[in-house]
Specification:
This protein has about 240 residues and is an alpha/beta fold. The chain folds into two domains: about 1-35 and about 105-240, Rossmann fold (3-Layer(aba) Sandwich), CATH 3.40.50; about 35-100, DNA polymerase, domain 1 (Orthogonal Bundle). The protein has helices at about 1-15, 35-50, 55-60, 65-80, 85-100, 110-120, 135-140, 165-175, 190-195, 215, 225-240; strands at about 20-25, 125, 150-155, 180-185, 200-205, 220-225. A six-stranded parallel beta sheet has the order 3-2-1-4-5-6. β2 (about 125), α7 and β3 form a beta-alpha-beta unit. α6 (about 110-120) packs parallel to α11 (about 225-240). The longest helix is centred in the middle third of the chain and has 17 residues, at about 85-100.
Length: about 240
């Protein structure tokens, strides 16, 4: 599965080689089982200001910055972007609701996978559309000695969030790598679109309620059912370039 996917990817991109030196992880739905809380908070916050929004829409918009999500909702209803004041008000509501749900649990096998990757000497980045300070702080709490601030790209760092390729292009720049020297782990269709747009091999982990096609359609080279699945396949996968 992985060998064929890598070969197809390299041929399609006309890359000289596939030799990842870094792994870029999305955060919500990959490292933390937090998307159910985000979805619920978006529905409540937008409902408070009279905008219909479903949990399905929240999952389909996963990866966008908060302001981009709000603009999308306003355009659907009013055919205009939200004002800055409207964005601040709704995002404040969304954050308030999100924080009432308590800590987001770590995604099963995320820590084990991160530890294995670190032991292989690969760089580890987090690339997230989130601006939720509590979640970003939780990276240090739940994954000590894995993440460093200079190896994070968050909503605060980018002008264009996912699905624009800017977040992953910024991660490549921070790592000092070419696109064929990294790979991405994503669970969201817009995140996959962003990573593929940056030219990076992307593994989709379908940890949410959406069908696999929403990850394969925007270009994920491989789609797996969980972080556990990726963890147990990682050694064989990484041997395809680390042992050459």
């Amino acid at each position: 599965m992985f060998s064929t996917a890598i070969q197809d990817f390299v041929e399609q991109k006309h890359y000289p080689v596939f030799n990842p030196q870094a792994v870029f992880f999305d955060m919500d739905g990959v490292l933390f089982d937090s998307m159910k809380f985000h979805a619920r908070a978006w529905v409540q916050a937008l409902s408070d200001v009279g905008i219909p929004f479903t949990e399905y829409e929240a999952y389909m918009n996963e990866g966008r910055t908060g302001h981009s999500t709000i603009d999308g909702a306003y355009n659907s209803l009013y055919q205009r972007d939200a004002t800055e004041q409207e964005k601040q008000n709704i995002y404040r509501l969304k954050t308030s609701y999100f924080e009432t749900y308590g800590p987001s649990p770590v995604m099963p096998y995320a820590h084990e996978l991160l530890s294995l990757i670190k032991s292989q000497g690969l760089q580890i980045f987090v690339v997230t559309g989130s601006g939720q300070a509590s979640l970003i702080d939780n990276l240090q709490l739940h994954f000590p000695e894995i993440f460093q601030k200079e190896k994070m790209v968050t909503a605060f760092d980018v002008k264009h969030g996912k699905p624009h390729p800017e977040p992953y292009l910024m991660a490549l720049a921070k790592a000092g790598l070419n696109p064929w020297e990294a790979l991405v782990v994503e669970n969201a269709p817009l995140g996959v679109e962003s990573a593929v747009g940056a030219g990076i091999f992307t593994v989709g982990v379908n940890t949410g309620p959406l069908p696999d096609e929403v990850l394969s359609r925007p270009g994920a080279s491989v789609v797996l059912e969980s972080m556990k699945d990726l963890y147990y396949k990682w050694t064989d996968f990484s041997s395809l370039w680390l042992n050459k």
